[in-house]
Amino acid sequence: MAESMRTAYAEALIELGKTNEKVVVLDADLGHTTMTCAFQEQFPEKHFNFGIAEENMICGAAGFSKAGLVPFASTMAMFGMGRAFEQIRNTVCYMNANVKLAFSHPGISVGADGGSHQTVEDLAVMRCLPHMRIFAPCDPVEMKKAVFTAARMEGPVYIRISRPDVENITDENTPFIPGKANIVRNGEDVCIMATGLMVHDALKAADRLEEEGISAAVVNFHTIKPIDKDMILQMAGRVRAIVTAEEHTVLGGFGSAVAEVLCGQNVGFAMVGIEDRFGQSGQPEELFREYGLTPENIYDKCKMLLSKSGK
Amino acid sequence: MDYQNKEKELQRDIIKMIYEAGSGHAGGSLSVLDILMVLYYDVMKTDPENPDWEDRDRLVLSKGHACPALYAILADRGYFPKEELWTLRKLGSRLQGHPDANKTPGVDCNTGSLGQGASIAAGMAMGAKYLKKDYHVYTVIGDGESQEGMIWEVAMSAAHFKLDNFTMILDHNGLQIDGSNDDVMGIGDICGKFAASGWNVIRVKDGHDFDEIRLALGQRCDKKPTFICCETVKGHGVSFMENDYGWHGKTIDTPTYEAAMKELGGR
Ligand SMILES: Cc1ncc(C[n+]2csc(CCOP(=O)(O)OP(=O)(O)O)c2C)c(N)n1
Ligand SMILES: [Mg+2]
Fold first, then answer.
1. Residue A311 — very low, low, confident or very high, per pLDDT cuts 50/70/90?
2. Which is nearest to B237 in space by CA: B24, B34, B20?
3. B114 SS3 class
4. How much is the pLDDT for A125?
5. Which residues of B touch A78 (CB under 8 A)?
6. Out of A97, A286, B54, B246, which residue is the most buried by the measure of CB atoms under 10 Å away?
């Protein structure tokens, strides 16, 4: 059954509220959107709503961290990453403050709110900041692990919280080690490296390839930074083609991070992502088709690369 | 014009748009409607035949999520066909979830990120002065929106640059997403703050009284920007949406749609 990533985020926070006396949660009038309102209900004294004032919330979070606390600051990615970018850069990252940024509504799965609210550049922006670590969980079970892990780590962490409900494809026993991508499915011909919601589409594409006798590996990159270089190089030595899939612009995001590692390797490479365009209003499924974020497109890219390499 | 009847008609349009779209912001659209009606039917110099007319007055809906109210009025004034209202928020529509000036005839500015619209509007007013144009720039902000630091940067700059061709209207409905302003982040004596910043401040006790709004919009002041605080009701016109922050951005389902339409005199 499909479940909410945001509810998983809030449930993990509530668990932390019970077990880690250092954790506090900060909001910017979107507690009913990020679902941190559930945390607030249980722990009103550990919750601080800054109102519609994201910059103040982010620097406020850094202040909390200076007092030895572990603040989780939540809002929509556009207003956290966007409005408060310089606060994240110069206060949170430059000072290496122990602040956890958990932003919801990344990508075009935001849907009808439209291009002004669809953050398709957060991975690129967060990735270029020293000290920042980035988690982009693919399902609710993984979301909880990302939150618990972030709380244990020292320093800035960004957690990308997708809006739609999704099926769990990981389980309690799946490891979650920062910087270590997980092989979801083994394969020898081609490897699909995916992050967040696109892991689901990657698996569907792999099914289709298998029907045609093509063996496709699928790797879930729950961590975008630090990127798992060993996994990327290991796959580059094994398969003939690598295709990345992300709900994000192809400029500077996850695919770019993989390409930076692959540079100079003898392996076919293509990216599935948003091609230098803003989002727009529409239903998430329609938008995924419009922007080419589909199993078919991943499948096509794999086939195209394999035919170039002679299969 | 028969304002009362027109208001009901536009309220029905707003509810129908959001119902058809499956999402959207009813509460803030209904609270700002009457302010926008006075601006577009009475006060602003505009030409629906020529939406980009250089000398027109401008409106920047800084609380961009309330765009269903703006779209309903623009359609009624003939900027685009009324049938287009039912395409709100759909793939390929000219009516995006938040205002997009490049797509929608009559929309003067993109908004959706709270705080930015007010600042753009002040910039437009500065541009008009620089070019010695005499058009007026209006912006409408929300009370939750007034928590953004940008609003206070505009409070300073608009007074500093003596923007007497600039009017900021506050849709003071007392509510935002997570609750009341007072519960989330008190905004204090906002009129006093604008007055202290050097603005011409006017209070409208009933932001749903067309005459009172019209009167306030006529009271400008030489060398000062004007701040008009309108006391409004979030969800105005639909009894069960009124003064309930839960109706900020909730989906309107079929029973809700029918109940709302019945109250608004629809079929
Ligand atoms: C910079 C920014 N932060 C957060 C949001 C999300 N958001 C949209 S509407 C809203 C509440 C607005 O409250 P208010 O200004 O009082 O609007 P109204 O009550 O008139 O609808 C919020 C937090 C946003 N659009 N922009
Ligand atoms: Mg309000």
1. low
2. B34
3. coil
4. 98
5. 113
6. A97
The residue among B96, B150, B248 with the most chain A CBs within 10 A of its CB, best to mutate, is B96
Q: Are A287 and B92 an interchain contact pair (Cβ–Cβ within 8 Å)?
A: no
Tell me the per-residue pLDDT of B64-79, one tens digit each, with 9 for 90 and over.
Answer: 999 999 999 999 999 9
Number of structural domains (chain B) is 1
CA distance A40 to B36: 36
Residues A272-286, mean pLDDT to the nearest whole number = 98
How do residues B120-157 score in pLDDT, each as one tens digit? 999 999 999 999 999 999 999 999 999 999 999 999 99
- Interchain CB distance below 8 Å, B112 and A50: no
The predicted-structure confidence for B240-249, as pLDDT tens digits, reads as follows 999 999 999 9
Nearest chain B residue to A38, by CA = B178
Gap between the Cα atoms of A310 and B141, Å rounded = 60
Q: Rounded to two decimals, what is the model's pTM?
A: 0.97
Q: What is the CATH number of the domain that holds B191?
A: 3.40.50.970
Q: Can you tell me which atom of ligand 1 is nearest the CA of B113?
A: 26
Whether A160 and A186 share a structural domain: no
Residue B113's region, left for phi above 0, alpha for psi from -120 to 50, else beta, is beta
Domain assignment present for A176: no
Structural domain boundaries, residue B153: 3-263
List C-alpha distances in Å: A94 to A59, A62, A99, A131: 12, 11, 12, 8
Same domain, A186 and A263: yes
pLDDT tens readout for residues A32-84? 999 999 999 999 999 999 999 999 999 999 999 999 999 999 999 999 999 99
Q: In total, how many domains does chain A have?
A: 2
- E strand or H helix at B120, and its extent? helix B116-130
**Model confidence at A243: pLDDT above 70:** yes
Over chain A, what is the mean pLDDT?
98
Residue A270 shares a structural domain with residue A210 = yes
Whether residue A284 lies inside any domain: the answer is yes
Within 208-237 of B, beta carbons closer than 8 Å to A belong to: none
Q: What per-residue confidence (pLDDT) applies to B266?
A: 80
Helices A198-211 and A295-308: angle between axes, nearest 10 degrees: 50
Which candidate in A29, A87, A289 is best for mutational testing of the B interface (most B CBs within 10 A)?
A29
Q: Which tens digit of pLDDT belongs to each residue from A89-134?
A: 999 999 999 999 999 999 999 999 999 999 999 999 999 999 999 9
- Are residue A264 and residue A212 in the same domain, yes or no? yes
Asked, for residue A158, whether it belongs to a domain, the answer is yes
Residue keyed to tokens 């110099």: B45
* Six-digit token string for B195: 């007055």
CB atoms within 10 A of CB B197: 19
Output phi, psi for A241, to 5 deg: -150, 145
Q: What sign does the CA torsion over B56, B62, B67, B70 have?
A: negative
Does some domain include residue A77?
yes
pLDDT of B1 over the 90 cut: no
Question: Which residue segment(s) compose the domain that A302 sits in?
Answer: 182-309
